[in-house]
Amino acid sequence: MRCPTLKELPPPPPGKIGWPWTEESPPLPDTMPDGRPWPRVSIVTPSYNQGQFIEETIRSVLLQGYPDLEYIIIDGGSTDGSVDIIRKYEPWLAYWVSEPDTGQADAINKGWRKATGEFLSWLNSDDILLPNALVQAVSHLVANRDSLLVYCDQRVIDENSNTLFEIHLPDFELRDVIRSWLNPVNQPGFLMRSEVLKCVGFLDENLSFSMDFDYWLRISLRFK
Known about the structure:
single chain, alpha/beta, 6-stranded mixed β-sheet, two-stranded antiparallel ribbon, 8 strands, 29% helix
């Protein structure tokens, strides 16, 4: 599905301005500069009772201006109005469901099993993508076949989306990760090839908070 334009989406709540409420990424042409179609990107958003934030998350994905987006939302049975917000954006979702699950990793895995994109990611329901984030990640993976996964710098924001500070991570070096035990990848905004999922498998559903750190380590044992 091509990303909708700002005019096509429901109007923002009163008082909401700026990205992604009243601003959008410029729409990309149907094909890349070399004439090939843009590869499909599948993004999964897991959520549970994040009604305060999820609409901003959804709009930040849908307003990327990308020509072939598959957006999937897996809600864990929220009771705070999240489902009503998700339904507002249903026409632009490839799939969504609201049902009990066993946690974040379970929800992401459910979404990835539905995904058909060449590139995959997940974006939590209290995180957002900045304008043009998707095309930058895709363009790098398209231009660099040896790259299996890309990640970006990260702005840490408060509940009103004000920037508190930024996180700049170096290139991934497994030796440095083992020495420091710091999470080596900023998970919001990362993008990986679907072949990574085929080789490494799904997230470990026994892990509640460190499933991403575990996943980066598992990838690093299989790929450069």
